[in-house]
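REQUEST ID: PR-0412
SUBMITTED BY: lab tech R.K.
PRIORITY: routine
TASK: structure prediction, single protein chain
INPUT:
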Amino acid sequence: MQVDARDVDILKAIADAETKSPDTIHERTGIPLSTIHYRLDKLKDAGIIVNELYDMDLEKLGLDTTFVIEVIAEYGEDFHAEVGEDILDIEGVTQVLFTAGEMDFIVVTQVADREMVEDVISEFEQIDGVDRTKSMYTIKTLRDGNTPLQHYDRDTLVEKLTDSSVE
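STATUS: complete
OUTPUT:
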């Protein structure tokens, strides 16, 4: 399925408002409710919206390449906060991790094409405090999601997260 601007507006409203409410999507976009319902059904049928939580398959949407950037920053007082905030301002950055070890930050973004990669890299070149970056494309995503509890046994979660014994 090729998405159009209305589909993008609907998906962006879902992501920004963190809701699947057609009323909220309508308020944010001005798109008629009947159109929203129709478009949501089409996006689900195409596999772009993958579940009732409205998680999206970014590959099917067209953001099919995960781009990972390792960042070495100039060490200084609060450098992680200052450089980290600048990194968070880069369009398309979905994850920023402040790390211990050789690299100071690991940054993840999803891109559609080489032009988007160039845009991300040029943004890093403008950040004061970034000494060097090392970038890589992913070949294949083996697991992606925002539901980490799926990957733990219930007993492990009860043991580590509660004061209760496993029941």
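NOTES: The mean pLDDT is 93.
REVIEWED BY: pending
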